[in-house]
Specification:
The chain is an all-alpha fold and 193 residues long. It is 67% helix and 0% strand. Residues 43-62 bind DNA.
């Protein structure tokens, strides 16, 4: 008679439905690592392996690659909202956090099949509402011109997202840092009369 197999650190224990939230979190973290290091073409099986869950768990949480992409973006928007809603938040800080997320998520930008999808639009609207809330203080402090709108800022973000997907990985950080430098100069100052 053989003894039951001992649990080892390398072997995950199946906790069933009780592990759903932890598995989802592990899959999102693994997706960031895997796609961040291997790029947009990394297989989903690598994400499941990195998260130490079965592929069945991956597909229960994220039936399609697009569902996984959306979940990563949604989590990022949650983080941006938390920043923007905290006391002392400012537009520059929010935009810097967004730029850092974009740089870390370039592979996810490349995987978007359809940016016009309603749920992606809603994520953009959520970011826009936070920008809209912080923009008046930035105007008052002279960081941006009176005529700069939330739509203008969102347009710049969309342009950078497109540029990041086209740039070689070696140039992406420089592009994000260049935009950050431009953000530290007053944007579109009010014209003198």
């Amino acid at each position: 008679m053989t003894a039951p197999e001992a649990s080892t650190p390398d072997r995950a224990r199946n906790l069933g439905p009780r592990a759903a939230a932890a598995n989802r979190r592990a899959l999102l973290e693994a997706a960031r690592r895997v796609f961040g290091s291997q790029g947009a073409g990394a297989p989903l099986s690598a994400v499941a392996k990195e998260a130490r869950v079965g592929q069945g768990s991956l597909y229960r949480h994220f039936p399609t690659r697009q569902d996984l992409v959306y979940a990563v973006f949604a989590e990022g928007v949650d983080e941006l909202e938390a920043y923007a809603d905290a006391p002392g938040a400012d537009l520059r800080g929010l935009l810097r956090a967004l730029l850092d997320q974009m740089l870390a998520s370039t592979a996810f930008l490349q995987m978007l099949d359809d940016r016009r999808e309603d749920r992606m639009y809603e994520l953009g609207r959520r970011v826009g509402r936070r920008i809209d809330r912080l923009l008046p203080a930035a105007r008052r402090d002279g960081l941006v011109g009176e005529q700069l709108t939330t739509d203008d800022v969102m347009f710049v973000i969309a342009m950078l997202a497109g540029a990041l997907t086209m740039l070689p990985p070696t140039d992406r950080e420089r592009a994000v840092n260049r935009l950050a430098v431009m953000m530290n100069a007053p944007w579109l100052p009010t014209p003198s009369r």
